[in-house]
Structure prediction request, 148 residues.
Amino acid sequence: MNLFEDLRNKIGKSVAETSHASKRMIELSKLNYKRKEKKREADQIAEEIGWIAFTEWEKEQNVSINKALKSGLERLQFVQREMKSIDMEIEKVKNENKFSYSDGLSPVGHQTTPFSEPSSLLIYLCPYCAHQVGEDDRQCRNCQKNYY
Prediction:
């Protein structure tokens, strides 16, 4: 292999790795936003359930599972399942470390093998303030907000 082919392959690999890391980061950001919205919905439903229970307690000093309470609990259970599904998608994307070259830039004469993305190519940003955060962080050091 000559110098130019080697250089072309190395540059192509770096570009492909960066592109893959960017797509992965965008997907994680979308999933984190989706999960945050589901969490907000679950909190709202839980608040509604609490008011339904409190209102019934005020009337009878007892809480029974009436139609409104049952409906709220079922909605909350459904949203919780959706959140678990999103969590599984997030873990799948986070653990994704295989990459295949679709543009023919894999090294000539070398067998393409899966690799872990170099951490230096991955940049994680806070979904609230866009400050750089660590891959495993759950709270931004800049704005102090929690995220998933």
